[in-house]
Design a protein that fits this description.
alpha+beta; five-stranded antiparallel β-sheet; three-stranded antiparallel β-sheet; 7 helices; 31% helix; 14% strand; globular
Length: 216
């Protein structure tokens, strides 16, 4: 699993050079706004491209409705790669490697990325699927699928929970990088296990008035 590094600055660290045009460029531009590089707003390239790649991994491994039970930082968290996620099924996902996702199975490897579909042995992707093999839903595109599901009331190909699970994994990985800590996670209750400090300090952040979440 590869996506860009999560390393980010805080606004305080960068306050001598930052201005509003860096966070939100005015007019036409040909680059991504730099707010992605600041921890108050984002989690670097990890939260950017990670949403695409972890989503593929979860989809393929039938993990769209759950999450990891353990998050393990690399020996050098500042490297920005190597965090591992362990799931209750025993499956592990590791951040780092070639662009996209690489699946390691008993019969070979499969590499999927943007414009990439290769395998070792090559026959895995060259041989047509049989009738009894798993066939994925052929989406007409996100917008069309969304409109179709509004009318049919069927679940979208990318439902809300799948997106929430994906982004949670990325944030948990960033926390492991930033704090160099191993975490136990309860995906059913969306909480750290036996770690009230982490639940109190890391599942949310202070907000300045009047920007507060509503009470429910």
């Amino acid at each position: 699993m590869y996506c860009e590094k999560p390393l980010t600055l805080t606004i305080r660290e960068a306050q001598r050079t930052i201005d509003s045009s860096v966070l939100s460029p005015r007019g036409v531009h040909n680059h991504f706004p730099s707010w992605r590089a600041y921890r108050e707003y984002s989690g670097g390239g990890h939260t950017d491209m990670g949403a695409h790649h972890y989503d593929i991994a979860h989809w393929a491994l039938d993990l769209d409705h759950t999450g990891p039970v353990e998050i393990i930082p690399p020996e050098n968290p500042e490297s920005g790669r190597g965090v591992r996620y362990r799931y209750a099924t025993g499956v592990e996902i590791e951040h780092g490697g070639p662009q996209g996702c690489v699946f390691y199975g008993t019969e070979g490897q499969l590499h999927i990325g943007r414009g990439v579909l290769t395998s070792d042995p090559a026959s895995i992707v060259e041989e047509p699927l049989g009738e009894d093999d798993v066939h994925l839903f052929r989406s007409p595109g996100h917008h069309r699928n969304w409109l179709d599901c509004i009318k049919s009331r069927e679940p979208c190909v990318a439902p809300v929970e799948a997106g929430a699970r994906t982004v949670t994994v990325i944030h948990l990985g960033n926390l492991a990088y930033w704090y160099g800590r191993r975490f136990q996670w309860d995906p059913e209750n969306w909480r750290f296990v036996d770690d009230e400090q982490a639940n109190a300090e890391l599942r949310d952040r202070p907000r300045r008035d009047p920007w507060q979440l509503p009470e429910v």
